[in-house]
Amino acid sequence: MLDALLAAVARHWGFRSLRPLQREAIEAVLAHRDSLVVLPTGGGKSLCYQAPAVVSDAVTVVVSPLISLMKDQVDALRASGIAAAALNSSLSPEEASDIEQELVAGRLRLLYCSPERLALPSFRRMLAQIDIRTIAIDEAHCISHWGHDFRPEYRLLSELRAAFPDASLHAFTATATKLVRDDIVASLKLRNAAVLVGDFDRPNLAYRVHYRQDVYGQVVDVLRRHNTGKPGGDAGIIYCIRRRDVDDMVLHLKSVGIDAMPYHAGMTPPSRKKTQDAFRAERCDLVVATVAFGMGIDRSNVRFVLHTGMPKSIEHYQQETGRAGRDGLEAECVLFYSGADAMLWRNLLEKSVGESETPVDPAYIRNVRRHIDDMENFCRPTRCRHRSLVEYFGQTFDKENCQACDVCLDGREPHAESQTIARKILSCVARLDQRYGAMYVVSVLRGESKDDIQRRRHDQLSTFGLLREHSVKELRGFIDQLLAQNVLVRETDETGDFPLLKLNERSWEVMRNERTVRLFAEEKRRKRRKRGLDLVEAAETASVPSKRSRAEIESWSGVDRDLFETLRSMRRGLAEEIGVAPFVVFSDACLRDLARRRPSTYEGLRRVYGIGESKLAQYGEAVWKTLDEHCRLHGLSRDIPPATSSDDDRFKVHDEPAPPKRRTRNPEVVKAFELFRAGKSLDDVVLETGRAYRTVTNYLAEYIQETQPPSVSAWVNDEIYRQVAVAAEREGRKYLKPIFVALDEKVSYDAIRIVLAHLAATGSEA
Ligand code: ADP
């Protein structure tokens, strides 16, 4: 059955392998065992129930919360040649009746519907006429009060078990907390469920968090970097906390020549729909929104998500940033925050508790406060963002350097005087008897001659003026960081209105030098060159190019950007013709693969990522013509072999005899060899040649084989070399994977490949 299924995946979707956990999830569906699958957004949940439906002889019912989501899924299935339909309130009675007839006649493989519809006795009676053996529940966290998206209508699903005793139930969500998971299993009454929780890291997302200083300027910097609003520019979403911030941002962007559409709950439903439809159809590439712009956003090629304020929990942040890069290609998530954001969320909580007509559960209040604190901690530049997120969701993160967050990419060093500064701040709080707030402590530390300081004789304290060389902002930032590291705490005064700084056990440990802390200096924004520049120019001069993430470098490697753009407009045309969203026709990942490999035959097209039989039959001709025309016009070579080997091949070492020496070496390889000769690191060579990591590693292996250098310590440290050599001795050198596993998956494949190449080149015996 699994073989038939894999063949169907290749035929309909054009995918050659399954992603992590897809196989297990699919096996659960095929075996009719209840399951709960937790995979991050973009992890490939839909394939887990769609592929089994294709090879099954019964209809699969899929519960989905929004009509727009159902539409995108059904469009995508049909585009892949799979009979699917959605029954929902947007249909006329005739249309609904047509679909019901198709269903009863056994012509549909998948039927999408809302939870409300599934609760209707008439609908259930109709389903009883057919054999329903599988029910998939998308966005299953909506059933839980603990989730961030509780939907009362999802509660109706608790009746499914009794109503369809013979069907297996399969819940899918991207929300990872244990509380929500347990709630889903209990509410849906899952039996002996296979609970599959995927890896929560999204390596294709580059996270950046910056202090908010001049939010308009900072936002425009990012948009310019993405070329948004210009031909070939990237699409993205800007999230604001309040509706009025949305409107102000849209106006501001317009004033600097960038078109954006707003979306918030204060707009009329038709105008909200207009924004959503335009974004889906790629008629608009930039939406400024509150979190109301949420679940229905299925567009897969969102290349950035910006937050102009801090979300109120890490769950929200994960969900909102999850809308970026669903196609697996690189995307950027930039958050601009200030200490005021957490304050705003805390005030909103107090206000809602104060205005509530019924008493609010103290556990709920504590829970919300904890979420705000956790989010605030996340914002501090003290730890790798990927690591923080993954660990927050209870998983471990093994990489030393994620190469995809501001902390790892920009390599910020802690302040050399961190410990001394921390001790001075804490002892000032102690001298002030822990009775003042952060701004007062800052004034005393800066030695400001204010009336209230003098009146209270705090200018006589030994800590008065101890940190006068630091700006208010800097000191404020240090205090925030101490709070984040929990070596200082904030508590409200007896009126409950004013936050005071308090010490805890850890503060005293720092003061006694028994605990070390790291503090980071405030980020500097480049000064504008002169006053009076118009905003556009100012934004351009202020724009600091951001270091590119590894995912970005790799996914653009070898892609002809002009051709990619040409293919994008071809896709828009096709999508308009058939009335579906462009990403339903082809994903960006597919277009980039086309623009990289540039096949000259139909057979070659079939090997491109995401092109299955059905897409080849429907769009093959249009794609081929566009490719051919563009390549002829621009003199581009065709049929370029993939730069990286396929997933299965990556575990193999090339043990066949070396190919005959090429007479003329590709100039890129020559350049890479020169850089290796100069002792440049792999990172540098990747940056300078613009090639993928794996390709550069292969170049290095070739270089090592040719030059047989006495040492490879420029690329692999000696200890790792030793470990790999020992493991290779035991496991053999034919495959990389056993060595990788023997080293607890801690040493990268690239490092293993380099060491093996060196062992082979220097003739060490296996
Ligand atoms: P989720 O529902 O988990 O957010 P999707 O089901 O929308 O994720 O899948 C995300 C993207 O990954 C889609 O573009 C999909 O086509 C692609 N995808 C899913 N499974 C595979 C696979 N096995 N190989 C390659 N691409 C895949």
Structure description:
Residues 525-545 and 645-664 have low confidence and may be disordered. This protein is 48% helix and 10% strand. It has 766 residues and is of the alpha/beta class. It has 5 domains: 2-197, 3-Layer(aba) Sandwich (Rossmann fold); 205-410, 3-Layer(aba) Sandwich (Rossmann fold); 418-511, Winged helix-like DNA-binding domain superfamily/Winged helix DNA-binding domain (Arc Repressor Mutant, subunit A), CATH 1.10.10; 556-664, HRDC domain (DNA polymerase, domain 1), CATH 1.10.150; 666-766, Arc Repressor Mutant, subunit A (Orthogonal Bundle), CATH 1.10.10. It is built from 35 helices and 15 strands. The strands form 3 sheets. Strands 3-4-2-5-6-1-7 form a 7-stranded parallel β-sheet, sandwiched between helices. Strands 8-13-12-9-11-10 form a 6-stranded parallel β-sheet, sandwiched between helices. The structure holds adenosine-5'-diphosphate. The site of adenosine-5'-diphosphate has 17 residues, from helix 3.
